[in-house]
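Reopening this one. Same input as before:
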Amino acid sequence: MIQFLLNQELRSEHALDPNLTVLNYLREHVGKSGTKEGCASGDCGACTVVVGELHRNDQGVEQIRYRSLNSCLTFVSSLHGKQLISVEDLKHQGQLHSVQQAMVECHGSQCGFCTPGFVMSLFALQKNSDAPDSQKAHEALAGNLCRCTGYRPILAAAEQACCNKPQDQFDSREAQTIAQLKAIAPTQTGELNSGDKRCLVPLTVADLADLYDAYPQARLLAGGTDLALEVTQFHRTLPVMIYVGNIEEMKRIESFDDRLEIGAATALSDCYTALHHEYPDFGDLLHRFASLQIRNQGTLGGNIGNASPIGDSPPLLIALGAQIVLCKGQTRRTLALEDYFIDYRVTARQDSEFIEKIIVPKGHSLFRAYKVSKRLDDDISAVCAAFNLKLDNGVISEARVAFGGMAATPKRARHCETVLVGATWNAAAVEKACAALAQDFTPLSDFRASKEYRLLSAQNLLRKYFIELQTPHIETRVTAYV
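Same output, byte for byte:
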């Protein structure tokens, strides 16, 4: 059984289809049709809902953290121990919520289909903001598409909603909701079981290892932003899933003198502060990784584990010399991330083995990262590049150069690195290294970019890296797009 709050109503579910998304649960099982399906792939934001969960802030105070999610990519099992809020829950005692009122007064709704998703993103923004902030508003709404091109009034509504925000029913009931969430906090492995399909929800790494050993055919579910597409887009059935999002051990970020250790189930939005502090380029790229809804769900371990050749984090982590800790039963092994990827969607992971955490070395001051995509925000890379050199008196003593989108796997540019190591860091060496990239990669052409464009972009990004290191005041990193 799993338990969660539907606004303030306790829901206990056991026999639901584990392949059921939160979107379809709302629309088909509880009659809340305000949440819309626009794309069923997490691109449009029409299905945005907000999930609340217990969280201790920096001062150690327990509170509810509200986050926007794409309900079309969220399986119901991930709600275990949390609170689900949909657009119907905002109106209270016959009065519109302040974010809804702002949309009305600023004329933010046109055809209206996307409006519930915008309202929920604005609600999450308001809950996480102390004052109007244009940058945060753009970030909060980047994952919501308006087909009527009505963004200006919606941004005005965001400003109004975050300015002198009034107390709402969620604020006045916070203590009550915290008590309810504590009462339903999971204490043992949860389960959804419809007879022919099941999803297990362990609470510890040890329990996960035991379950995965017992069900090696199970699919691991973390954020689900990639896995859910098999259900919503390809109409496949996932007979057995194991949801790892309730394992606190796999959601920790620990900082040591020489490294960061990031749990594999840590949401990308939670990785931002630590990674940006150590490597600003990594943090900046996370802002372009996907929409805020996706970053609130998607995990760093999931982005590695699905072994996509266009995942944005692997090239950066490879260039930094990151490692992953793999767990199987009571056995753990540490593997260089670059050795994890074998071929297209093929990895070195053994049966019943899972990524427990990622180890990111510190202290690489010349690390830079770049992303080329058709759209600046919320788009898949055509090319993702990461460069990490060590210079001794102007001579390159170490070089790690990695790319995504250039091969069947995220991959180091070995010929390029060989040319660079031992060379003086100058334009001539860069041109030789650019030429060597043609030996490292034979990229494919697809609808994102031609093979010629990809190779030329990779070479130009290396030139860009050289120019920026010569003139560090230039702030153009991670902003390239077609």
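So the earlier flakiness isn't reproducible anymore. For the record, The first helix runs from residue 22 to 29.
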